[in-house]
Specification:
about 475 residues; 3 domains; elongated; binds nicotinamide-adenine-dinucleotide; Isopropylmalate Dehydrogenase; tricarboxylic acid cycle; six-stranded antiparallel beta sheet; magnesium; Isocitrate dehydrogenase [NADP]; ten-stranded mixed beta sheet; 14 helices; EC 1.1.1.42; Alpha-Beta Plaits; alpha/beta
Length: about 475
């Protein structure tokens, strides 16, 4: 390899500059063919008035080099500052968050000496779409958006990762016993894609018992794929049980750009003291080298790092009161061991060709360019959400019955998802937020115009509609859940 690969580098906040300098020094001595291009992001940029925490020049660099090595940043306290991590992931379409969790027993203390699992977390969708609204004085909502292409991309990524990295099993975690449409879509897509990989064992657990099992018997897992929020929680649990949150790195992979980082934050409590552990960021950098096809340097650094840990050279967070070295000394110890292999741990050998360009998936086309699914979508009715702190359930029901018109009928009213009309129980607690479900009669004119007419009649009756959700069927199947008790 002769040409150096340009990469964008942010030295970050807090301990960021210390661990980035240590990491880049190790990469340089290992012969990594990279040319860092430094950008400013984070606290300094936020406080200069850029509420997104990133400048136009920084975006330009990221879009040009397509590879980003990022130190942790500090998000200033208080309102108005958006999370830069979420902004970068979503703007650049970094849909896959890959977090290896590995125990380094007996050198790093852990209750689980044999953890070696990979979490593949969906990184853009779910509740992290960040679409939140206040509907009434008492009620707020956050939209959980799960898309078919989003599920396909992340699940295929998990299977491809398993194949390329000699992993035997892919586990899916969801809560589809409750969220049958959203989590149900994720699980269904998992089952569909699993059929393309008969050589890989698969299983599925409901998220609650799934995370409990990660905490209790992590050795049962190999690769785990899950929606965004569950992945966020499960990956911290998985990292923590290895006894080494400070050691883990992560990759955020997209079709165009990829970002590599440590999983921890900017640790302001120890910033400037020269004692931070650079290992998490170094592991992120190793994943970056593999991604850009520099497997040899990645292998050399990883083995030198394992040897350093075996030789009992620890920063204070790992030494836990025992003898320790500072950030710079730790980096020097790794550099001294470049070319050596561990003797207790199995040496690592990265194969060239693991980078994403060789992974079997296609660039995701935009919706307008995708093959249109062969689906008949028909309007079936509407959920009208009403603000009401005046009437009882029955009184509200009677008012709405009088405005249904000829084409629609009032099927049910729920409050927080539970049926309160007709035939509600007086024991059911209610808020000021009522979901009123109207369905078209069999021979009705099933159009949005009829729904608009209904809304006009509801408004004329003096009721306050705060939002609507159209009800559709897809190839005759209901595309909406029933209310509890409906
Ligand atoms: P943190 O991860 O920064 O620190 C938690 C604890 O772990 C602290 O006691 C810290 O000293 C220790 N620690 C973390 N990394 C260490 C390392 N490499 N070596 C030794 N000890 C280490 O979490 P926090 O205190 O909750 O957050 C601090 C700031 O970091 C916040 O502004 C937060 O928003 C930000 N943050 C950024 C990222 C990111 O940029 N990816 C991730 C998480 C938090």
């Amino acid at each position: 390899m002769s040409e150096k690969r340009q990469i964008t580098v942010a030295r970050g906040d807090g301990i960021g500059p210390e661990i980035m300098d240590a990491t880049l020094k190790i990469l340089e001595f290992a012969g990594a063919m990279i040319e860092p291009e430094f950008i400013d992001i984070g606290e300094k940029v936020y406080l200069s008035g850029e509420t997104a925490g990133i400048s136009n020049e920084a975006w330009e660099s990221l879009r040009r080099t397509k590879v980003f090595l990022k130190a942790p940043i500090t998000t200033p306290q208080g309102g108005g500052y958006k999370s830069l991590n979420v902004t970068i992931r979503k703007t650049l379409g970094l849909y896959a968050n890959i977090r290896p969790n590995i125990s380094y027993h007996p050198f790093v203390k852990t209750k689980h000496p044999d953890v070696n699992l990979i979490i593949v977390r969906e990184n853009e969708e779910d509740l992290y779409a960040g679409i939140e609204h206040q509907h009434t004085p008492e009620v707020v909502q956050c939209l959980k958006l799960i898309t078919k292409p989003g599920c396909e991309k992340i699940i295929r990524y998990a299977f491809e990762y398993a194949v390329k990295n000699n992993r035997k099993k892919v586990t899916c975690l969801t809560k589809d016993n409750i969220m049958k449409l959203t989590d149900g879509l994720f699980h269904k897509t998992f089952n569909e894609i699993a059929e393309e990989y008969p050589q890989i064992e698969t299983d599925h657990w409901i998220i609650d018992i799934g995370i409990a099992k990660i905490a209790d018997t992590p050795q049962e897992f190999d690769v785990i794929v899950m929606p965004n929020l569950y992945g966020d929680i499960a990956s911290d649990v998985a990292a923590q049980i290895t006894g080494s949150v400070g050691l883990a790195g992560s990759a955020n992979i997209g079709d165009h750009v990829a970002m590599f980082e440590a999983i921890h934050g900017s640790a302001p409590d120890i910033a400037g003291k020269g004692i931070a552990n650079p290992s998490g960021l170094l592991h992120g950098a190793i994943m970056m080298l593999v991604h850009i096809g520099q497997a040899e340097a990645a292998t050399k650094i990883h083995n030198a790092w394992l040897k350093t840990i075996e030789d009992g050279i620890f920063t204070a967070d790992i030494a836990k009161g025992g003898p320790s070295v500072g950030t710079v000394e730790f980096a020097e110890a790794v550099i001294e061991r470049l070319g050596q292999s561990p003797t207790t741990f199995a040496p690592v050998m990265y194969k060239v060709g693991l980078e994403k360009n060789e992974i079997k998936y296609e660039m995701s086309p935009l919706a307008k360019d995708r093959v249109k699914p062969d689906v008949i979508q028909e309007l079936d009715g509407v959920d009208v959400f009403v603000l009401n702190n005046t009437y009882t359930s029955d009184e509200l029901g009677e008012q709405l019955e009088s405005v249904t018109g000829e084409d629609l009928e009032l099927i049910v009213i729920t409050n927080r998802g539970v049926k309160v009309y007709p035939g509600g129980f007086p024991e059911t607690f209610t808020t000021d937020h009522w979901r009123c479900r109207f369905q078209f009669k069999a021979n009705a004119d099933k159009t949005n115009k009829e729904i608009l007419n209904l809304l006009q009649r509801i408004d004329d009756a003096g009721l306050h509609c705060i939002k609507t959700e159209n009800l559709y069927t897809f190839n005759g199947e209901k595309g909406y859940s029933l209310g509890q008790g409906q």
